[in-house]
TrEMBL record:
InterPro entries: Peptidase_M15C, Zn_M74/Hedgehog-like. It comes from Citrifermentans bemidjiense (strain ATCC BAA-1014 / DSM 16622 / JCM 12645 / Bem) (Geobacter bemidjiensis). One of its GO terms (molecular function) is carboxypeptidase activity. Residues 165-226 form the Peptidase M15C domain. Keywords: Carboxypeptidase, Hydrolase, Protease. Signal peptide: none annotated. It comes from the Bacteria. This is D-alanyl-D-alanine carboxypeptidase-related domain protein. Residues 1-32 are annotated as: Disordered.
Length: 246
């Protein structure tokens, strides 16, 4: 019989369970509930998530590929709120004076000095330094738990000074505190109320590290993840950002 990987019934609480081989959760642990995500054996006997042709068992017993669209899970972003543009301006200053619908560079020298280009696992990003350090930790945990999901991930942009799509408000990408994630180069369609299955597997890790998942936005944006207001305040308290409020 193919191995079955087991995770919590509520993936967004990520209960601690007994570590198994290579740091994966051990299905033998009494702490491991019943949520089954697949049983197609891949390298080292684990599920081969990297190939989108592989299919996965989900809660209702049907099968699903990483890029298949599924309903937005419940109980996401618990206790987390996305920062408003006004809050980001207050905390970090204006990235630039004028914005369009196209990506433009940061012209605020103090903010620009806090930006970093770095490899964060399977892709390279340009963003706010503490956000990048946080991404490295998130992706490292994803690599340990879902190594082949990790291998399928790509970035569709982090730092990008522009307006929000369909709005005159400034996008949080303008401060380098948000990232859009794709799976094998496939973008999740915004606003259809459904998300790529693979995104539901990585979102709990982002939530655990204080990042908001855009799947819960008024207009669903499943590929979007951004540092929450509480996370930004934590970085400010730890001296990891040059706050405009000091």
């Amino acid at each position: 019989m193919s191995p079955i990987r087991r995770f919590g019934t509520d993936r967004f609480s990520l209960p601690i369970s007994t570590p198994g081989p290579l740091g994966h959760q051990d299905a033998a642990s009494p702490d491991s509930p019943e949520w089954v995500i697949g049983e197609t054996p891949g390298p080292l006997g684990f599920n081969d998530y990297a190939d989108p042709s592989y299919r996965f068992r989900i809660e209702d017993g049907n099968s699903c590929r990483l890029t298949d669209k599924v309903p937005v899970p419940q109980h996401i972003n618990r206790g987390l709120t996305a920062p408003s543009p006004d809050f980001l301006v207050l905390l970090l200053g204006k990235p630039r004076e004028l914005y369009s619908n196209e990506c433009e560079r940061v012209t605020n020298p103090i903010l620009a000095s806090q930006m970093l280009v770095s490899q964060v696992g399977p892709f390279k990003v340009h963003g706010l330094r503490p956000a990048i350090e946080s991404l490295k930790m998130i992706l490292n945990e994803i690599r340990q738990e879902h190594p082949n999901v990790y291998a399928s991930l790509g970035s569709s942009g982090m730092l990008c000074c522009r307006k929000q799509r369909g709005s005159p408000r400034i996008s949080s990408h303008s401060w380098g505190t948000a990232i859009d994630i794709n799976i094998k180069g496939a973008l999740d369609e915004r606003g259809d109320g459904r998300v790529q299955y693979g995104l539901t597997l990585i979102a709990p890790f982002f939530n655990r590290y204080g990042w908001v998942w855009g799947a819960a936005f008024r207009k669903e944006d499943g590929m979007h993840f951004e540092a929450s207001k509480s996370k930004l305040l934590q970085w400010e308290a730890e001296g990891k950002i040059h706050s405009q409020r000091t």
